[in-house]
Amino acid sequence: MRDSLWNLRDYRLWFTADTSDVIAMTFRSFAIPLIAIALTNSESVSGILVSVEAVLVLVLSPIGGAFIDRHSRRKIMILLGMLGMLFAGIASLLMLANRFTLIILTVLMVFFGLLQGLLGGSNDAILKSLIPTESFARAQAVREGRESFVGMAGDAVSGLLYRVAAYMPFMASGILYGVEMVTAIFLPDDTARLTARERRPSFLQHFIEGWRWAITKKKFMQITLVGSLVNIALTALTVGAPIMLAARRTDPVLIGLLGTGSGIAGFLGSLIAAKILQRIATGRLLTFTFSFIGLCFVPMMFSDGYVVILCCTTAVGLLLPSLNSGLVGFVFGKVPEDMQGRASSVFETLLGAFSAVTPAATGFILKINHGFMLLSACAFLLVLTATCITCFASIRNIPTPNLWNSTDL
């Protein structure tokens, strides 16, 4: 069973398309704050620009989720790759022509936000229709390993590309979006599920149905609450460290190594994630991981040196694969197939309700004296709150994966 996943042609195609999408977003996400700093020399403006896309994704994801559940997810993936390639190509050409301005960068962030918010959930939503249900948890674990590997190499490669030329991350991103588009073309047609219902509900009914389903699931909402608190903390430091270092005129390659360190730790953590999940109940793992993350933030409350930041952000990545595999596997392994797009959009919307504006707030905090250390203290308090909530919520009782079938969502 462990090897059967890679024997599935559809899974290999999906994995290639999804990985191309993830790396493409990594390249352009790395370049955006650095380009903003170069154009404006302002940490606050850089943070606001990062928030532009995040806010649009937050607002549009619920609409996108309902749209994805009502249309062919394969065709939406093709459209996502095509438009991503177009937008990234336009950015590259404008930079090559020395026509790139702050206004153009802002407009591009709006376009990418529309793209990701309305179409980005198609990759996640289509997966459950491509593989057997019993393979879903393993697919999530494989995905965590992939995310860690991309984190390990993606930012470092982005830094090297940016050092060559500012347009290179966008050019590479455009090529990868093209790979996603071409690969998605060969995925199986998924329109059969759309004609299965005798009476298809309206878009509004479809939209409301997804939210009504989600908010009635107790553990789903508890996971979303504590996850959003930790997500804000991680977003603040993940965005804040590069902006702060870029303002210091730190070498882009060194900035990229922050992601490499986290990626290496995450990749190593993904190798033992399966064993950890089988031996430690998911609820207990949640409490332990949150506590560990909080401890990792403590040194950065007293120092904003590069080595301290590198070591602390690297350590944070060790247990994230186990945590994410457990929680995401538990949640979406129990979500019905026809609800995948809407459940994912509700989850992402609620999870990112505040983290979307976190980069903007981060930029302003960084302008304060010892701003990064203050940011780390705020992140610590958020994680501490999440840990306390977890200790008293029903999610602390989520068992190991072999007992998930007997556990309600």
UniProtKB/TrEMBL annotation:
CDD domains: MFS_MefA_like (cd06173). Coiled coil: none annotated. Pfam families: MFS_1. One of its GO terms (molecular function) is transmembrane transporter activity. The chain crosses the membrane at residues 21-39, 45-64, 76-94, 100-119, 223-247, 253-273, 285-301, 307-333, 345-366, 372-395. InterPro entries: MFS, MFS_dom, MFS_trans_sf. It is found in: Cell membrane. Keywords: Cell membrane, Membrane, Transmembrane, Transmembrane helix. Residues 1-402 form the Major facilitator superfamily (MFS) profile domain. GO terms for cellular component: plasma membrane. It is a multi-pass membrane protein. It comes from the Bacteria. PANTHER family: INTEGRAL MEMBRANE EFFLUX PROTEIN-RELATED, STAPHYLOFERRIN A TRANSPORTER. This is MFS transporter. It comes from Bifidobacterium aquikefiricola.
